[in-house]
Design brief:
Helix 2 crosses helix 9 and helix 6 packs across helix 11. The protein is of the alpha/beta class. The chain starts with a helix and ends in a 5-residue tail after the last helix. It folds into two domains: 191 residues, D-Maltodextrin-Binding Protein, domain 2 (3-Layer(aba) Sandwich), CATH 3.40.190; 99 residues, D-Maltodextrin-Binding Protein, domain 2 (3-Layer(aba) Sandwich). This is Tripartite tricarboxylate transporter substrate binding protein BugD. Keywords: Signal. It comes from Caldimonas mangrovi.
């Protein structure tokens, strides 16, 4: 019996090795859990192009939108663990456990982590008619108008929603949260003066700041940004909110049980893509920063996501924000 088990184990290892050696023998699918045309979709399509050559295979993108990204994530969690179905997801990977009561997967248990891709900074902006000229004046204005300030966001679980929750928590300021169905209508009302402030990704705010359509008060990263339109903006950390650090990031995930040799191939292709000059250029055009540290490794990526889950869980639960 013992000999039979040893033979079976050796056969399994041989099969796994052969699978990895032949991988990929057919197109790999990137599942994007949002509609086509959005920031995550753009990142996934650029990444697919950059990974195609080092992976020596075709990568196609499939959009599976719905339920704040959780439908697409659930599809990948339940997919065959062979490396051919991958998930490209943003910060929702870390916030969904606290946001959704009936989540069909566990981020840290139901996925293999391939690596982190990028980070997108955020900015705190206000309507053009807001009297505050800088963050110090904004802070006083918020304090003087507790309970009256309208804080816009693009919907439950959106980057602007999460940033707004943390901002309220760290400033201990009550605001009237105004959710919209997307960044577009939220930005339109901010420019029109129907709402007061919003915290959103540089991908959505830089053009409005450059055009003078909104007032910009601070960036949410711990270091100032080098982007010409944003380089003079202080950070919230230096403005008094010590430790305030919010970026919207994107990572790549495979179903739990995907063989390590296959994951190694995928990670090697990812790391090669992150050094690709054209990919870096495209990400910079989106206002994103390509990750170059240990978080591009499976272990580093998983440790980072675990930290993000621990960071956002208490903030979301304290706000009493849930979805079924």
């Amino acid at each position: 019996m013992k000999r039979m088990l040893m033979v079976a184990a050796a056969a399994a290892l041989t099969a796994t090795g052969a699978l990895a050696q032949d991988f990929p023998s057919k197109p790999v699918t990137f599942v994007v859990p949002f509609a086509a045309g959005g920031p995550t979709d753009k990142v996934a399509r650029d990444l697919a192009e950059a990974m195609r050559k080092p992976l020596n295979g075709q990568i196609i993108v499939e959009n599976v939108a719905g339920a704040g990204g959780t439908l697409g994530a659930t599809k990948v969690a339940k997919a065959s663990p062979d490396g051919y179905t991958l998930l490209v997801y943003h910060i929702g990977m870390a916030t969904s456990p606290a946001l959704y009561r009936n989540l069909q997967y566990k981020p840290l248990e139901d996925f293999e982590f391939v690596g982190l891709v990028n980070e997108v900074p955020m900015t705190l902006i206000g309507r053009p008619s807001l009297p505050a000229k800088n963050y110090a004046e904004l802070s006083k204005w918020l304090s003087d108008n507790k309970g009256k300030v309208n804080l816009a966001n693009a919907g439950l679980g959106a980057a602007s929603h999460l940033c707004g929750l943390l901002f309220q928590s760290m400033t201990k300021t009550e605001m009237v949260t105004v959710p919209y169905k997307g960044t577009g209508p939220a930005m339109t009302d901010l420019i029109g003066g129907q709402v007061d402030i919003m915290c959103d990704q540089t991908t959505n705010t830089t053009g409005q700041i450059e055009g003078g359509k909104v007032k910009a008060y601070a960036v949410t990263t711990t270091k100032r940004l080098s982007t010409p339109a944003l380089k003079n903006l202080p950070t919230l950390d230096e403005s008094g909110l010590k430790g305030f650090d919010v970026s919207i990031w994107h990572g790549v995930y495979a179903p739990k049980g995907t063989p390590k040799p296959v994951l190694d191939k995928l990670n090697a292709a990812l790391k090669a893509a992150l050094k690709d000059g054209e990919f870096i250029k495209r990400e910079e055009a989106l206002g994103a920063v390509v990750v170059t540290d240990d978080r591009t490794s499976p272990a580093g990526h998983k440790k980072f996501v675990e930290g993000e889950i621990n960071k956002w869980g208490p903030v979301i639960k304290a706000a009493g924000t849930y979805a079924d």
